[in-house]
Amino acid sequence: MRIQVARKFKPFLSPSRYKAAYGGRGGAKSHFFAEQIIVRCYARQTRVVCIREVQKSIKDSVRQLLIDKIAKLGLEAYFEILETEIRGPNGSVIIFVGMQAYNSENIKSLEGFDIAWVEEGQTFSQRSLDMLRPTIRKEGSELWFSWNPRYKTDAVDKFFRKRKPDNAIVVKVGWQDNPWFPAVLRKEMEDDFAADEDKAEHIWNGEYGAGQGAILAKWVNKARRLGRIHEAVSFDPDGAPIEIFSDIGFRDTACWWFWQRKPGGYSIFAYDFDHGLDADDWIDRLKAKLVELKIPPHKLGIIWLPPDAKAKTFQSKHSAMERFLKAFPDKVKVKPASKKSDQINAARTIIGQCEINSVACEDGLDGLEAWEFDYNEDQQVFSREPKHDWASHRGDSFSYGCEMMQEPAQFKDEPEPVKSVKPMSQMTYDEFFAAVPDNRESRI
User: Fold this and answer.
1) Is the pLDDT score of 347 beyond 90?
2) What does pTM read for this prediction?
C-alpha cells in the first residue's frame, strides 16, 4: 500500500509516547489518525482503544470514520465490523469507550493496549487524563490526542502546550496544511470569516474560542488580534500613580490587577493571585510586589478592595478594610456596590482602551477568557449571573477596575509630602508607612 500523508503529519510517522495534533477544522487531524490506525492494525497485531470523555452510544465514536478508511484503502476483506468493535488481521482489535464510564478499578482492562486515541481532546477532563496516562503502559505503547482548542485551561492544552513533555510530538495543523482541503469547506470558511471573525478564528484557525456563554473572551481575543496584549507593557515611572483592584477571599482565590492611567487609555502591567492567604499575608505580599515592580511610594495611588471588604474577615475579628487601612494609610478604598450587568458592560467597554502585559497577567487573562455565564440545564438557557468558579474571581476583580476607571481619577497627581528626615523618594516602604499618621478609625 502507498499512503499519502500531508507534510505536516510527517513527524507522527516516528515512534513517540505522545502524539498530539491540534488546530481548527479542515486540517484532517482525525482522518490522519484514523487512517494510521487501520494501517497499523493491518500490518501487525495492534490493540487500539478510541476514547472520548463522554460516549453515550457508539454513534458518538469514530467508528464510522474508521469504517470509511477501511473502505478507502480497499481492506474490507481483512476487517470484521461488529457493533461495538472492529477486528482486524493477526488478532488486531479496535474498541470504543467513554472515559466517564471508568474508575480506578475497571480502567485496568486497558493496560494491554498498544494505542489509545483521544478524539475531541478539548473536552477531556484532568481526572481522565490522570487515569489514562499510567494505564496505557505496554512497552512501546502510544497515546494519541486530537482536538480543536477551546480554553488554555483545558487539560490537554495545559499538558501539551504549556507543560510540553519531552517525549511528545505536538503539532498545530490547520486547513492551510491540508493539500486536499475541499472547495466546499473553503466557501464555508470564507462565509464564517465574513460573518464573525472572532468565531471563525476559533473554528478554522484553531485559536482559543469564545463559548456561547462567554462573558469577555470575544473582547480579549480582539485585543490580542489588535496587538494590545503583549509582554512589553510596563509601569511608567513618569506616568500617573498606579491603582490596584482586587477580589479577595480566604478559601477562594484572591486576585489583584495593577493599573496605570495613560493618555487615551490604560496600562495593566502586573497581576497577582493566590488562595488560602489572609489579609496580613496579602499586605506583606503586596508590599513586596511594589518593591519588585520598582514603584516608589508616591506613585502608589489607591488600593481598591471589593464592595464586601468591610464584612470579609479572612477568619479574623478585624475586617479586611481595617487591616489594609492600617498597613496602607490613605491608600485604601472600597469600591461601591453595583449591578453585575454594569460591571460586565464596563469591562467590555474599557478593555478596548487597555494594553495588558501578556506574560505578567497570563493567569488573569486565562480567567477572563474562561469567565462565563452560568447555564441552567433544566431551562437550557444561560443565566444573567456568571458561574462561580476559578475564573469568576479574575473576572470580578478586572471588571471592578474597568468600572472605576470610567470615573475621573480620585487622587492628586502628587500627594502631599510626608514629614520625614528623608526625602520620600529615598524612603523604604516600611519607613513610608510608619511615617504616615494612623487615622483609619475616622475612615471606617
Assistant:
1) yes
2) 0.67
